[in-house]
Write the structure tokens for this entry.
Amino acid sequence: MTKTLAPTPEGLASAAHLLSSGELVAFPTETVYGLGGDARSDIAVARIFDAKGRPRFNPLIVHLPDLAAARDIALFDDLAERMAAAFWPGPLTLVLPLRPSARLSPLVTADLPSVALRVPEHPTAQALLRHFGGPLAAPSANLSGKVSPTRAEHVMAGLNRRIAAVIDGGTCAVGIESTILGLTEDPVLLRPGGIPAEALEACLGFPLADAPNCERPAAPGQLASHYAPRAAVRLNAAAPEPGEFWLGFGAGARDADLNLSPTGDLVAAAANLFHYLRQADDRATGCIAVSPIPEKGLGRAINDRLRRAAAPRS
Ligand code: AMP
Ligand code: MG
């Protein structure tokens, strides 16, 4: 059963405690309810993808209490500082270069060198972030493909028994997602949302380009800047060929060089995936052979990522 917590000091303390244990807690923001997990914890972030039933590891928005906390995670140039000063706290997400020292789980950024940050205005979101004392990864608190929730009941309708708790903070005022502004290159509107593009343009002083292709951020494996292993990757390998590095999964792969989850736990495998792909790439002298991963639950997202890693390079 998913607990419903009140936005009181006691409720917030329970929520912060759950989050510190790697559990998931949905919370109100001014846009929609977010499904929060510790952005530094691989297992917590893997649980977010699992709870939502997402078929892909697309990058998540990281929520912070203020600009000072955001500066610890991303690099802010003058333009980013100006946009943050004008619109934070509020329904604007900025995509910025990730600081290597940020120590976020690579699942949050889908292993990209950029990160999406937002400082929400909602008093309950603010209070939770301050109680918790760390960055919260939080996509909308609905099953993948369903509409975003604007009331605690909506969260329960989709995610009851899939998450630890929801904080009931009433109805979200804005009711649509945050506007996403990409600032890693020329400013680009990655997603329209709670702040109109005209308001951003008035602050920037010039018109904004639309995202060249809306699918782009949703498919990080296709980004040129996305990490791809140097070594060749062979999928569905029951056992390695001589000279191959074996990235295993499950009890049948006891002799693997690395095992994504010896017990065959897909959430654990997702939590390890990006770390182990990098380690395998560093250690492999030939091809990386990967055990079959069941095409169910988080296995679909893992296989999606592995297929990209194995795709021929141009
Ligand atoms: P949500 O599902 O509301 O958390 O939306 C997350 C969206 O933010 C993604 O689908 C991307 O469009 C965008 N996004 C998040 N992180 C990044 C990033 N590092 N680079 C580019 N876009 C991002
Ligand atoms: Mg969503």
